[in-house]
Amino acid sequence: MIHDLPWNKKPVLLKINCRQFKCHKCKKVFSEQLNFVDKSKGYTKRLASDIVQQVLNSNIHSVAQRNGLSDEEVESMLKNQASQILNINLSQIKRLGIDEIALVKGQGNYLAVLVDLDSHKPIEIVQSRRIEDIRKVLVGWRIDVLNEIEEVSIDLWSPYKKLVEELMPNANITADRFHVMKQITEELDTMRKNEKKAAMSLDDESEKAKRLEALNKSKYSLLKNEDSLNEKQKLKLQSVLEISPNLAKMHALKEQFRQMTQLNLGEIASLNY
């Protein structure tokens, strides 16, 4: 029984009748190998690849629960894919991402992951996010490999920046757009809370009720991608933007940034600001 990609959000198991053979010389019995399943694994290669992409945007425990897997299975998928990529010549890595993966969200237990930004696949999993541990891994890549790296994407943590400047002097450092977007949405949500607090202190009961009606339960409509809102959420967003110029401006900038990060360089250069 082999786990495969879900179908219409339903789990899929492949029941495969593997043939067995017996060697005439050594008399050892062995099963045929499947080219879409790694040896001794209970899941397909394409499921493992999909799980890895989910983890890079979430955390191990949540992905495991969502896909009916154990935390250990998901971590094994990460390590297995990373070990396969390490078989290639590391000098081919030109654009590197340094990111973190939470084992369980909110519990402060993290792994560091080094990602090839061109293939969007992990290169290596570090068992902690401590700078000393990441440094040890990178130093093991050799100086000539590190000198050939042209770009490194990191979050806004300064120790990462110092490590890159030290070990990869020829690399341009870019901010990870996911972390920048997180900071933008946090600032937007802080303004939403401030606007609600200001509305509650108004003496004019009519104006107070009007503003609170618009602001209550507006968080999701403000923070979610505008083009993903349903009609009810769009109406809520419109009412919020009409009563708060501050939120209207910040929301517009949030959407503009999000759209820019989805464009290629040529499209960005052609924008008329």
UniProtKB/TrEMBL annotation:
Domain Transposase IS204/IS1001/IS1096/IS1165 DDE: 96-263
InterPro entries referenced in this protein's UniProt entry, alphabetically: Transpos_ISL3, Transposase_DDE, Transposase_HTH
Occurrences of domain Transposase IS204/IS1001/IS1096/IS1165 helix-turn-helix (ranges): 32-80
One Pfam match: HTH_Tnp_ISL3
PANTHER family: TRANSPOSASE FOR INSERTION SEQUENCE ELEMENT IS1557
Protein name (database record): Transposase
Organism: Nostoc cf. commune SO-36
